[in-house]
Specification:
The chain has 169 residues and is mostly beta strands. It is 4% helix and 41% strand. The termini are far apart.
Length: 169
């Protein structure tokens, strides 16, 4: 589905009553699980009756999943949301935003010098790093102030203020 942003993979059935275990992806944000913005990758709406922690994962009970067989049939599906819905006023986004919105955007310094385009977004512990190719090498820029001017948009350049030496080989 074009514009689909995955937040979790269904990795296994749990118990006998239709629960499944979700493996969180980089754009996972727990408040999304109780929102009206959830979709399966095929575009159908996803409604969850309950969610609970399950180690590094989350166990959920989809509304339309009532037994072990139905839960097993869901393994391999992806849960997410439509990209454009991120801009809705009531979308449950974290204060720092979600990482998907950085991909493909140009990165410019505050003085207007373009550095490159975000090729990849990586999460290390609780920190998000933007990966760009700069002068034939990979450079990682922390996606936090004061390095990055935060915005919640989906387009336009990302403005960075980098400390001296970050771009040096």
């Amino acid at each position: 589905m074009d514009g689909f942003v995955p937040i979790a993979d269904v990795v296994k059935a749990v118990g006998l009553k239709g629960e499944v275990k979700l493996y969180p992806l980089i754009d996972f944000h727990a408040p999304l699980l109780g929102s009206g913005y959830l979709l399966w990758k095929d575009g159908t709406a996803a409604f969850l009756d309950k969610a609970r922690p399950a180690g590094q994962c989350v166990a959920v009970k989809p509304s339309d999943c009532n037994d072990r067989n139905a839960a097993e049939a869901m393994v391999g599906r992806q849960l997410g949301f439509q990209r454009d819905s991120y801009l809705a006023d009531d979308f449950p986004r974290p204060a720092e935003g979600l990482p998907f919105r950085y991909l493909g955007r140009s990165v410019v310094q505050a003085d207007g010098v373009e550095l490159g385009t975000v090729q990849e977004v990586r999460r290390y512990a609780s920190q998000i790093l933007l990966v760009i190719e700069y002068e034939d090498r990979e450079v990682m820029i922390p996606a936090i102030p004061p390095f990055l001017d935060l915005d919640h948009g989906l387009e336009g350049p990302l403005v960075v203020t980098l400390p001296e030496g970050l771009l040096d080989a």
